[in-house]
Write a structure and sequence with these properties.
The complex is a heterodimer of chains A (306) and B (92). Helix content of chain A is 27%, strand content 15%. Chain A has 306 residues and is α+β, with helices and mostly antiparallel strands. A four-stranded antiparallel sheet of chain B has the order 2-1-4-3. Classes of the chains: A alpha+beta (306), B mainly beta (92). Chains A and B meet through strand 6 and helix 8 of A and strand 1 and strand 2 of B.
Amino acid sequence: MVQLLSTEQMAEFANSGCLFFDGLIDNETNKEFLNDIGHTDIENVDNMQKYFQNIKASSSIPRIPAGTPLKNAYPHKSPLEKIFQNEVVAGAINSLVGSEAVVDHQFLHLTFPTKYFKKTNQRQMSQVNHQDSTIDPRITFDIQLFYFPTDVTKEMGGTRYHPGTHLRIVNEMGIAKYQNIKGQKNIVCKAGTIGIFHNGLWHGAGVNFSDEIRYMFKVRLQPTEKQELLWDPEKKYKPLPNKALYWTDENQEKTVNDILMKSYPWQEADTNRLDKINTIKFWRMLTGHKNLDIDYWLTRIENELY
Amino acid sequence: MPKRQKVLVLYLKFPSLEAEVISWATFDGTGQKLHMTGDSDEPPYPTGLDALLDGWRLFQSSQAIPEHPGDEFRTSYLKHEFFFEKIEEGDF
């Protein structure tokens, strides 16, 4: 039985563009995954490309043609099949892109430690900020599921990401000039953590200053059905009524609308308001409530009488 | 003495130098420091004006371009971009 996401988790995803499940996958499966890819100490690796080729040649990670249904993608009893059959992982996927999602692509990201770059006399640089994979003005969205088979410490330079950037329409590395963005996060997590990104979320890999190889297995999944109330098949969600604007009540409990309207320190004063408008439009799509509004942002400008 | 350029790019919260820094990048032509993506979580200055006060010279800022009709709510790149420089002399 899969565990669908809650409305609060969906609102968090709609606002931030990401969700995390810390240490979700059990240690036995994490070890099985690492054994399967032939994980070894960095001292035993002379060449990054050769190491990667060996993983592709000998592990159970299959060659998956783009567009393959996820349910048929991974070998029976393989560590990756176990991960995708985890009730929380399957529930999150079903909630966001449906039960008939297809694989766009997969990739095992390897981030080598400083001693490898010293040994091979290469400059060790972080990956620039970017958005996968090209200009994408769709309302429909894909997800990118990240699996971390080992602990990721701060010095290992886990994936850098910028919450709330997912609805900005940019052209891939067109954002590379932003070296640092206020509120940037780096993934620091336990082994077995699963992260799920909206395909539009700005991100990049950090520098690995530890002595260990950092792994991150990524799968991009595309929906084949409308992404409306997939997490709420009984259609229980009802929009909240309008509230008095600029009227604060300190005792007020946090609502789904508060989650949706959260601001981020990188947002400009003017464009922040457009980010909110776009989040409301995104929530309209996800809930199927075409006239839903929050804090009157859309009602105000949709009241065209001429 | 040879001269080298250091470039500081600040993105501000609104299009005035008094505004808060929300994103930043530094490129050091002297070779003294290699800056890279994700290398600092705190901005080098709280506002654009603070960079001027520390001797950085502004040489370019973004224009205010009206939104295209029909695309008024489309969000994209950071808008309020300011390029600064310092010229340093030394034995590089």
